[in-house]
Design a protein that fits this description.
0% strand, 3 helices, 2 domains
Length: 85
């Protein structure tokens, strides 16, 4: 891995772990949550990369994809906050 590469998903994982997982979470719980977190990141990445148009310029469909994903994530966050997810 290049020294200058920023591990953005790892940064998000570390933030998530501090905010969500109990301080006394077992090693198994931490490992399984990390796997699920990175699995979600991979699914998101695949969805974005598979849904973008072939050109280097953003297209209307590209913006729609990102808007749909943002809305879905916001809606899920609201469900979590309201105890429904």
């Amino acid at each position: 891995m290049p020294a200058q590469m920023r591990l953005r998903i790892l940064e998000q994982w570390n933030s998530y772990r501090k905010q969500v997982l109990p301080a006394d979470a077992s090693d198994v719980q931490v490992t399984e949550c990390r796997r699920a977190f990175y699995g979600g990141a991979q699914a998101f990445y695949s969805t974005v990369m598979g849904g973008l148009g072939p050109g280097s310029e953003a297209e209307e469909a590209d913006f729609k994809l990102m808007e749909d994903l943002a809305t879905e994530l916001k809606d899920f966050s609201k469900q979590v906050a309201n105890g429904r997810a």
